[in-house]
Amino acid sequence: MKGWDKALLSEIEAIPGPGALQWTPVRRHFDIAAFGINAYTAADPGQDLVERHTENVRRHEEAYVVVAGRATFTLDGEDTDAPAGTVIFVREPSVERSAVANEPGTTVVAIGAKPDAPYAPGPWEPIYVARALASVGDDEAAIAELQHGLELHPDHPRLLYRLASLEALAGKRDDALVHLARAVEQSAELRGQAHTEPTFDSIRDDPRFPRAT
Question: What is the DSSP string of 141-198?
Answer without folding.
Answer: HHHHHHHHHHHHSTT-HHHHHHHHHHHHHTT-HHHHHHHHHHHHHH-HHHHHHHTT-G
